[in-house]
Amino acid sequence: MDISISFRHVTPDEALKRYVEEKLVRLQKYVETPLDLHVVLSVERTYRQRVDVMFTLNGVVINAHEVMDDMHAAVDRIIDKLEVRLKRFREKVKRYRETKPKFPASALEEEGAKIFVTKPVDAKPMDPEEAAMQLAASGNNFIIFRDIERGNVCVMYKRKDGNYGLVETARRVS
Questions:
Q1: pTM of the model
Q2: pLDDT digits over 85-131, tens only?
């Protein structure tokens, strides 16, 4: 667990820093991955003690803050808040893992793959540039065509990065 503590409008206090670190260690038992916590201890309007905690858990940014008259009480309350959130998150992950269907690799071999829809495709002869233009105009995710120069069947598809990918069949030598 990596904890970084910043002080704003407050003189850094080692005892308070140790207190915060001791309390935050309790959060590690709720997650499987090591936490990287960022804590900001600050004073607003000379009397309001504020604690902000931010960390990322499985790609989700979790923020929490607490404002009270006493910094130690604010730390205690924010730890309680975060424990509740992490318990809820852990239960949600547990429910997801229990309800997620499990398909071993051998299941498809035993049952056989099922074909839901068949559709005949006429592989029109065209060059890859024309296929890219037709694919962009059609709004589909892929297009099947026959390359004019080589005569082989090709599939052009849209990639996640916005570019196009091209799959070509090998031409048989007779």
A1: 0.54
A2: 889 888 888 888 888 766 565 555 556 667 677 778 888 899 999 99
Per-residue pLDDT of 35-82, as tens digits, reads: 888 999 999 887 899 999 998 887 778 889 999 999 999 999 999 999
Cβ atoms of 64 and 85 closer than 8 Å = yes
**CATH number for position 133:** 3.30.505.50
Q: Indicate whether 21 belongs to any domain.
A: yes
Do 140 and 67 fall into the same domain?
no
Question: Could you tell me which residues come within 8 angstroms of residue 44 by beta carbon, excluding any fewer than 6 positions away?
Answer: 9, 50, 67
Burial 105-127 (b: 16+ CB within 10 A, else e): eeeeeeeeeeeeeeeeeeeeebe
Note whether 132 and 142 are within 8 A (CB). no
Q: Which tokens go with 164?
A: 């196009």
